[in-house]
Design goal:
- 50% of the residues lie in helices and 13% in strands.
- The protein is built from 13 helices and 10 strands.
- A hairpin with a 7-residue loop joins strand 1 and strand 2.
- It is globular, with a radius of gyration of 21 Å.
- About 3% of the residues have low confidence.
């Protein structure tokens, strides 16, 4: 902890040209090998905030050739996060989706961020017994997501330039790699794990959905890891944390991620078809000025169904067959439930949405999988 504070003091001293002293570090908990601290600015010769957040990924001996001679996966994730914060900080203040990047150092893998204060994780609000609190939280999240997307449309080349400058551009996007691999492998897994043959129309739609990660008509910036523990509500409204896999992709993937109850973790959000429709409309209201075609219900429904199918398939790929190491790694989230409950919720939401929009093939496929999941848990 002291080494991170000392590194931040050196960085800020270089940046401001005068000594900076940081005190009272508090461990905020990091992911993987990262260290995340809140510190008080004890000596502040310039207009630094009273408190800061420090995030560091310490150097590691196990390095991959390619980045400045070598890099680990953790370091590549750090660099992508640094670039994402650079990009987001360059936005107008009202459009910024999270903390401001105040200083960074690629060599020491250190970020100095503004402190969002004692914001409340959105997961805490979603566990409320008050129906209005839950509904208002989901609507605020959808609106904030839409505002972020609307503010970043057309700026992909700016982001790509930052990636190139940080020498990260030639590394594959791990999220895209995992998604495309999983979607290709799911039909065989449905056969071996559930004894189900996926209808060709569903396979065709899944293949189209996979392209949302690399192309699509509605591309915008995404933090990519939209687990509820990475979203907070504070004085500045809904804010997004953790940009380790930040990048550009079709924005319908982000809103669909919420509509399918955060499928990369074991969270089960209090979602119904009615709430999902309202969230989709709240998101659309923020982005339709940039993408007028989404004003047509059938266009929105088709794209959301593609994205939801992709996420529910990916979630199934992650947790079936039961991967105990994976489940243990994600079980500490605030909304976590047993894997079978999480998957049943996602497939039920997909079945309801597909039936509501007249896609009987997707609805039937989802109900078939639900039936097999029930049998699997009962055995």
């Amino acid at each position: 902890m002291s080494e991170v504070v000392e590194a931040a003091e050196r960085l800020l001293t270089r940046r401001t040209g005068a000594p900076v002293t940081l005190a009272d570090p508090v461990d905020l908990g990091g992911s993987g090998r990262s260290v995340v601290l809140r510190v008080r600015v004890a000596a502040n010769p310039f207009s630094l905030p009273r408190t800061l957040v420090l995030k560091q990924v310490p150097p590691h001996a196990d390095r991959r050739v390619g980045f400045r001679g070598a890099a680990t996966d953790d370091e590549v994730a750090f660099l992508r996060e640094a670039v994402s914060y650079q990009f987001a900080t360059a936005l107008a203040k009202d459009d910024r989706p999270g903390a401001e990047l105040l200083a960074y150092d690629f060599d020491s893998r250190l970020l100095v961020l503004s402190d969002l204060g004692d914001a409340t994780p959105i997961a805490t609000l979603l566990r409320s017994d008050d129906t209005d609190t839950v509904t208002n939280t989901l609507m605020a999240f959808a609106q904030a997501l839409g505002r972020m997307h609307a503010a970043t449309v057309g700026r992909e080349e700016d982001f790509a330039a930052l990636l190139r400058r940080a020498e990260v551009a030639h590394f594959a996007d791990a999220v895209v790699e995992q998604a495309t691999s999983a979607l290709r492998g799911l039909p065989d897994r449905f056969a071996t794990e559930f004894g189900l043959e996926v209808p060709q129309s569903v396979v065709d739609r899944a293949e189209r959905a996979a392209k949302l990660f690399t192309a699509g008509r509605f591309r915008a910036f995404s933090p990519s890891d939209l687990c509820p523990d990475n979203i907070v509500v504070g004085d500045e409204g809904v804010q997004f944390l953790d940009y380790e896999w930040g990048g550009f992709r079709d924005a319908t993937l982000d809103i669909a991620y919420a509509l399918t109850s955060f499928p990369a973790c074991l969270c089960k959000a209090p979602l119904t078809l009615e709430r999902a429709r309202a969230m989709a409309d709240a998101w659309r209201a923020e982005v339709v000025g940039m993408w007028p075609s989404l004003g047509f219900d059938e266009v929105l429904a088709e794209r959301l169904l593609d994205a939801q199918l992709a996420w529910v398939w990916l979630s199934t790929y992650l947790f079936v067959p039961e991967d105990h190491a994976r489940i243990a790694a994600v079980r500490d989230h605030h909304l976590s439930v047993p894997w079978a409950d999480a998957l049943r919720s996602r497939w039920a939401l997909l079945a309801d949405f597909a039936a509501d929009t007249g896609h009987d093939d997707i609805a039937g496929h989802a109900r078939d999988v639900l039936e097999r999941l029930e049998q699997r848990v009962g055995d």
